[in-house]
Amino acid sequence: MSARVRAPELRGRGWLNTGGRDLTLADLRGKIVIADFWTFCCINCLHVLDELRPLEEKYGDVLVVIGVHSPKFEHEKDADALAAAVERYGVHHPVLDDPELNMWQQYAARAWPTLAVIDPEGYVVATMAGEGHAEGLARLIDELIATHEAKGTLHRGDGPYVPPAEPETVLRFPGKAVLLENGNLLVSDSARHSLVELAPDAETLVRRIGSGERGRADGPAAAATFSEPQGLCLLPPQVAEVAGYDLVVADTVNHLLRGVRLATGEVVTVAGSGRPWRSTVDDHAHDALAVDLSSPWDLAWYDDKVVIAMAGIHQLWWFDPVKRTAGMYAGTTVEALRDGPLAEAWMAQPSGLSVSADGARLWVADSETSAIRYVENGVMGTAVGQGLFDFGHVDGPASSALLQHPLGVCALPDGSVLIADTYNGAVRRFDPATDQVSTVADGLAEPSDVVLTPAGEVLVVESAAHRLTRLAPGALAAAGANTVDGPRHRTERKPTDVAPGELTLDVIFTPAPGQKLDETYGPSTRLVVSASPPELLLEGTGTTTELSRRLVINSAVDGGVLQVTAQAATCDADVEHAACHLTRQDWGVPVRVVDDGAARLPLVLRGLDA
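Structure for NHL domain-containing thioredoxin family protein, as requested:
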C-alpha cells in the first residue's frame, strides 16, 4: 500500500439529517466512514443509495455513510430541492450540501457516483467509482473492523443521523398518474411506496394499494409492498382478461414490474428477478420472471406490448403480458444522444413515455440529455434537445430550444406533446407542425407527469408539492402559451488531453477481495468502444474480450467523447458452491486532441484503489 492519505475535512454549504449540527471528521473518529459523492438526477447514484442500505443496517454501530451532494444541473444546486430529494429517495444518513463541488475536487472524484472509504483513524483507504460495490465494501468493512478493534481505534455506538419529521399529506412525492375508467385517478405515491386512488377532484382519497412500507411482497392491497413505484400502464381490456390483471406498475427500486387487479387491489409480480441488470445486450425474448431489469421508470402500451423506460441502463425494453416474456426494444446501454435504428440508438435515463393519438409514435422523455425523443417506424429521432451537457429554459425553434431534465410527456390529440420539464418547474409544449417549443405553465414544483382528461383538462403531477395540480382553462390555447428566452447552461467536464494517432486504452480491473476472474460462461471480460462524433476514432471501435485496446485518434477532429463500456465476470475463490458476479461500468470520457496529449488512457473498472 502507498503512503496513507489523510481524508480532507468535510466542508460545504450546510448539512441535512443531522438535526442542524455541522459534522467534522473529528466527530466521526472511531467510525468507518463511506463518503458517497452523488447527485439526485443520476440513476446510478440512486442505485448506490439502495446498495448501501443493507450495509448501513448490518454495520450500523460502526459504519457512517455521509452523502456528499455534488450537483450536475442548476436545479440541483438549490438547497430546498436537495432537501426534497433526500426525503424523496429515503436517504437515512447525513448529507453534506456541496454546490460548488469543492469536496468532489478535494477527494478527486471523477464520476457520479464515487465512494471514498475512510478508516476510523481518518485516512482514505479506498475509492470506488460507479455502482455494484456492495460485496467488496462488506469485505473491506470486515477487514477494517478486525484491524481497528485490535488496535483499539474502533468505537461502536449510534451514528450522527437524525431523521427529519415527516409532514402529513395524502401524497408524498407522487411520480406518475393514469385516468381510470370510472373517472378516478391512480397515482404512484413514490415516497410512500404505494399507489393512491383519488376521486376526480384529484384530492379526495378513495383507497391506497400497498401497505406504505418499502418491500416487494405480493398479496392483497393492504399487505402488498413496493419500493418507490413510478410508471403506470393500463392494459387493453382483451389483454387484461388473458393476463389476469388490469394495470402494470414500474416498481422502480425493486427492479420489477407488478400487476394490479383493480377490482380487488391485489398485487402480483409479473416481470423481473429483482436483481439489477448487469449483463450483455441481446435481442432475445426472455422469461419475464427470470430476466433482470434496471430501474424501470415509466410504461406505455405501444406496438402491441408494454414498452418500458429502463432508466437504469439507458434503454427501452418490452414486456408481453400474454406470452409472459420480456426483452430489449431500443438502445445499446451507451449513455448519450444518438438517433437511428432502434438497436443502435443512444439514450440517457429515459423516464417518461406517451403514445400519440393514432398509435404511430411513442414519445420519450430522455431526462439526462434534457431531450424529447420519439420512436416511429423502427427508428428513434430527437424532437428537442442537444445532448448530455446542454440544458436550460429556452423556447422557440426546436433546434435551439432547451429543457432541463424532463421526466414526463403527454401526447395531445392534435399531434403535439406536453412536457413535464421537471427541473425548470414548467410544463412545455412541442408542436411538430410548427417545430416550435413554448411554455404552457411555470412556477411548478418538480412536475413529473402530465395527464389529459377526456374533457380536455390538464392535470400535472407536481411531485415536490405532493399534489396533482389542474392547469387553468385555456392553458393549451395559443394565447395561453409563453415564449421564454431563459438561461442556457452547459455542464463542462474537464476533458482529457490525448495525442493524435495511437492511443492505448487500458481498463484496469481488480477483483474484490476473495474473488477471481471466471470463464465458466465464456470470456471473463468484455470491452465496447465508440466515439461521438464517430470521426474522432479512425480505429478501435467495436467489441473485444480484452480490457486493453489500441485506438487511433483522428488529428483532424478537435475533440469529442469516447464512449467506453467494460465488464468482468468473477466468482468467489476457493469456496464450494461459489457465487458468481458481474461488474460493469459505462464511461463517457470527454477528450481534447492536442499534440502534447497523452498516449495512454487508463480507466478503473472496479474502482478499488487501495
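The radius of gyration is 24 Å.
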